[in-house]
Amino acid sequence: IIRIIADMDKALVVWIENQTSYSIPLSQSLIQNKDLTLLNSMKAEEVRKLKKKVWSQQMLVHKVYVKKLLP
After folding, report:
1. Which helix (H) or strand (E) holds 50?
2. Which residue among 12, 40, 51, 53 sits deepest, i.e. has the most Cβ atoms within 10 Å of its Cβ?
3. What pLDDT sits at residue 71?
4. Per-residue b/e over 33-50, b at no fewer than 16 CB within 10 Å?
5. How many CB atoms are closer than 10 A to CB 8?
6. Interatomic CA distance for residues 37 and 27, integer angstroms
7. How far apart are CA 69 and CA 66, in angstroms?
C-alpha cells in the first residue's frame, strides 16, 4: 500500500502541475477529489494485478496436477 500512496502522490503532483500550467484554478476540494479518484484507480489496478497473478498460479497448479494424473 505504501507503493500505491507514493505512486498516487507522484500522479497528483503531475496533475497539479498540468492544471497550473494551463492556469486552471485549483481548490483544496478539487485536489482532494482528484486524490481520491487516483487512489481508487490505483487500488483497482492493484486488484487486477493480484487477480491475474492468482489466476496464473492456479493455472500452474492445474498443469502440475494434470501431469501427475496423465502418464
Report:
1. helix 28-69
2. 12
3. 64
4. ebbeebbeebeeeeeeee
5. 20
6. 15
7. 5
DSSP 22: T
Under 8 Å between Cβ of 6 and 16 = no
Q: Which residue, chain included where needed, has cell 486524490?
A: 35
Count CB atoms within 10 A of the CB of residue 30: 13
pLDDT one-digit tens code per residue, 16-66 = 999 999 999 999 999 999 999 988 888 888 888 889 989 988 888 888 777
Is the pTM for the entire model greater than 0.85? no
Q: In whole angstroms, what is the distance from residue 29 CA to residue 19 CA?
A: 14
d(CA 40, CA 48): 12
